[in-house]
Amino acid sequence: MRIAVGVAVAAVVVAGATTAYALTSGPGATADEPTLVAADTGDVTLAVAATGTLAPARTRSLSFGTSAEVTAVNVRPGDVVRAGDVLAEVDATDAQETVDKAAEDLATAQEDLSTASSTADTDTGTETGCATAAGYATGGTTPTPAPSTGGGPVPAVTVTVTETVTVYVTVPASPSASTSPSPSTTATPAPSTTPSRPSTGPSTGGSGPSTNGGSTNGGTTNGGTTNGGTTNGGTDGGTGGGSTCGGGTDGGPTGGSTGRAGGDAVYNAQKKVTSARLALDEAEEALAGAVIKAPVGGRILSVAGGIGSSAGAGSTFITLGDVGGMEVRAEFPEADAGRLVVGQTASVTLADRPGETFPATVTQVDPVGTATDGMVTYGTLITFDTVPEDVLAGQHAQATVTVSAVSGVLRVPASVVHDVADGAGTVTVRVDGVDERRAVRVGLIGDAYAEIVSGLTTGETVVAS
Prior knowledge:
Protein name: HlyD family secretion protein
Number of strands: 23
Shape: elongated
Keywords: Coiled coil, Signal
Domain CusB-like beta-barrel: 328-368
Number of helices: 5
Strand order of the largest sheet: 2-13-17-15-14-18
Distance between the termini: 58 Å
InterPro entries: Beta-barrel_RND_2 (IPR058792), UPF0194_transport (IPR050465)
Structural class: alpha+beta
Low-confidence stretches: 1-30, 126-151, 161-165, 174-258
Region (Disordered): 134-155, 173-263
């Protein structure tokens, strides 16, 4: 009985196997067919991609111009503001007091300058109206020399009188030791605007040499051209020289010192005015800096404090982003970065807007890479052609840059081209149901298609393995 049962079980197993074979290998079963594609004409593009974050193209760091307590903060991060909006303020009491004090100092300095200028003008005016040569009348055209005290010949004296009432006396070298003057050549003075004091009598100090003031008309060296004033020398005596306009030995130095003192006073007063004006400008600038206004429209990125906090002059209190120029900051690996060029077309996709693609352009590629964990990347800025509305600084984005492209060329799927090297490759072509291997010349191999330069024609069927 046991043998009969075993034979029956074996028969059932064989019958089942026979039935399964018949079902799987019947006349309707066929082997997997390869995919066939036709060569066509179109575009071939090659692009590289990287993830990045959105950031304003320009940011403004805004600060107060004076250190004080914050009294108003009118914005918070994320707010959109317009140019000229008041963003924050600090207590301006101290700044206003500084402006008032600087204005008072400037007014005082200007008064001092006016006084110094008036004094200098008065000192200058006392030296006018006394320039007629000694021993000559003011009304005639021919000067009359003073009487001679000796009989010998003396050098001729040439007198020049200008309209500015200044007299120059020139004495040529004397041919003899005699000091008695002889009648000189006629000199015609120009009309004087101020008559000089008439001579009260002949000079008595004419016997000494000319270098000590011995000329009868009142010494030529100590009372004349060397030390100043000559016109009134004859009136006051030869030995003393002229005195009214700073003449003689004592007149010249006194007049010079007075002029320098007046000039120094005006110069110093002018310096004080300039310094006071600069101080006032700085104080007014600090007062204006008690209020922060938006220089351009944009979005508030950060605020450093609140009401009651202390703000330092020059320290960033508000950061403003120009959202009108939003861009993507992405890091590309060095293998791809070498293909990037400013001006290349790009596209951006945002995580919160699936299915939308925004055109953009490469505007910057960093010349120096950054190494992180052995990988070198290069920062790249990609600017939207038109910035999407309501985008947020810092949100993630996917940037794709087209690094190469050709249009209107014969192409096949890049996956059907094999053994590519030095611009050559192979494809499998089906002709009349028969597959054959064919060599082709390859141009740009893009992300989806490969350009076929030669070896195929439009419409030929290529086998995709």
